[in-house]
Amino acid sequence: MNSCYFVVGECNETSDSSFLCLCHDGWTGIHCQSRIDNCNHTACENHGVCRSIVLNYTCECLGDSYSGRHCEITSTKIIIFQTISKSFSYIAIIALSIVVMFIVIMDILKYCFGIDPTRDDLERIRQEKRKSRVIQQLFYVHSTAVSPE
C-alpha cells in the first residue's frame, strides 16, 4: 500500500509491510506530509512577514519604509523623521530643565537669602491699585431761569 502523498513524494516498498518515501524538495516526514518551514529560524526585522517558499524564504517588508533580505535597511525618510523627532525631544528636555532651574533659583534667592527679585515690581503694581481715590461731590444747583416768551 502506498502511504506517501502522491504529489510530494515517491514511495518505494521495502517489504510487504514497510515502505520508504522519498520526498520532493520542501517536504519532509515519514509520509512526506509536512512542508519544511524555512521561516522557523529566520527573523525578519521591522515587523516584516516571513514567507516560506520551496528551499528558501523571503521577508515581505510592510510599506516602503524598510527593504533588504530581512527588512533591515531603513529608508532615508524614516532616518530623517527619527533624527528630527530626537532633536525636538532634546530641545523639549532642555527647555523644561531651564524652567525648573529658574524656579529653583528664584526660590533659593527668596527663601534662603531673603532676596526677592520681584519685590519692586510687586510694590509698583500694588501702588497702582491703591491710587488715591478721587472723591466727587455733586452739588445740585437750582437755577431760576426765565423762560423766553
TrEMBL record:
Mind telling me which PANTHER family this protein's record contains?
CRUMBS FAMILY MEMBER, DROSOPHILA CRUMBS HOMOLOG
Q: Name one GO cellular component term.
A: protein-containing complex
Q: Which PROSITE patterns match?
A: EGF_1, EGF_2, EGF_3
Q: Where is the EGF-like domain?
A: 35-72
Keyword Amino-acid biosynthesis listed: no
Q: Which GO terms describe its biological process?
A: establishment or maintenance of epithelial cell apical/basal polarity; heterophilic cell-cell adhesion via plasma membrane cell adhesion molecules
Tell me what this protein is called.
EGF-like domain-containing protein
- According to its UniProt entry, this protein's organism is Rotaria socialis
Residue spans crossing the bilayer = 88-109
Tell me which UniProt keywords the record has, alphabetically. Answer: Disulfide bond, EGF-like domain, Membrane, Repeat, Signal, Transmembrane, Transmembrane helix
